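Ticket #4471: structure output looks truncated?

Reporter: J.K.
Steps to reproduce: submitted the chain below (361 residues) through the standard prediction queue, then opened the result file.
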Amino acid sequence: MGSKSIKSLLVAVFSLIIIFFSYVSYAQDKGAEVTPPQEKFDPGKEIMTHIQDAYQFHFFTLGNFHASIHLPVILYSPQKGFSVFSSSRFGEEGEEAYNGYKLENGSIVSVEPGVDVYDFSLTKNVVQMLIALTILVFLMVGIAKKYKKGQGITTAPTGWQNAIEPIITFVRDDVAKANLGKRYKKYMPYLLTIFFFILINSIFGLLPGSANVTGNIAFTAVMGVISFFVILFSSNKHYWGHIVNPPVPWGIKPILIPVEILGVFTKPFALIVRLFANMVAGHIIILSFISLIFIFGGMNKIAGWSFSPISILFTVFIYLIEILISFIQAFIFTNLTAIFIGQAFEGSDHDVDHHADPVIV
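Returned output as attached by the reporter:
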C-alpha cells in the first residue's frame, strides 16, 4: 500500500512538471516576448566550488550581498618578498587581481611573468581544522580534569563524560583489544586521537558554509602516511620475513614477493582513498539534490517550487545519513589501522608457549 502511494505521488509530481514545461513551450510559440538569456546554473561548477578548498567561508548570497568571512592570504615570492592581505582583495568571485596576484582555478598565481609564488595562506580547510582541534583539545582536557578529581570514577559521570566514555570504551574493547591483544594500551592514545580527530572534522564539515576537511585528499594523505609509519615501526622480523621470503613453493615466490612488497604500500593507500572517497561522495550527493531545485527552477519557476519539497526531503535524509557515516568512517579508519598494526607484530605473539596459562586481558 505504501509503495503504491509513493508511486502515485511521483507520477503526479512529474505529470505536473511535464504540463508546466509544455505550457512554456506553447507560450513561446505564440510569439510572446522572450526575456534576455540569463547565465545558466552550472551544477558541476557549483558543487566543485563547495567541496574544494578556498580562501574564504562563503555562506550565502542575496542579490549583491555576499555573506562571507575572508581569510588572510600569505604569499612569498623570491622576486617580491612576502605579501600579506585579505582574500577580499580578489573580489567576491575571485575575478580581480591584486598586488600582482590573482586567483586561477582556486589557486593563487602571479600575473607577472617570471615571478614564482609560494602560498602559505590560511585557507578554510586549515582554519576549520585548527578550530576543530582547539574544541577537541578543550573538550578532552575538561573531561580529563573531571576524572582526576574522581568524578566518573567514584561517582557517576556527568556532562560530556556520558557521551565520550562509551565511545572510548568501544574503541578500547572492539578495536584495540580485539586487534592488538595485550599490547593495546601502547596504541590506545594514537587510536583515540585519529578516531576523534576524523570524527570532529567530519561533523564540522556538515555545517552550512563549512569546509569539507575530511574530503580533502591532503588531509587523508597525511593521516594515511602517519598510520603507515606507525605500522612500519610496529613491525618485526617475522613480518618482514613473510614479505621477502613468503612460506610458499619456490616457483611462486617470484610472483608473491612483489605482491607482498606492494601490499605494504597499498594498506595506507586504502586508508587514504576510502576516507576521501566516502566523505566527498556524501557532500556531492547532498549538493546534487540541492542543485536539482535550481535546475528545475531554471526550466520553469513553478517546476522549481514544485520540486523543492522533494529535493529538501531527500537532502535532509542524506544529511542524517552523513552524520552516521562520519562515525562509521572514523571507526573504519581506526579499526583498519589497528588491524594493520596487529599484522605487523603478530609473529611475536604466535611464538609464545601455547601450553602456558592464558593471559586474561
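Triage note (M.O.): checked the attachment and the full C-alpha cell line is present. The first strand starts at residue 56 and ends at 62.
Status: closed, working as intended.
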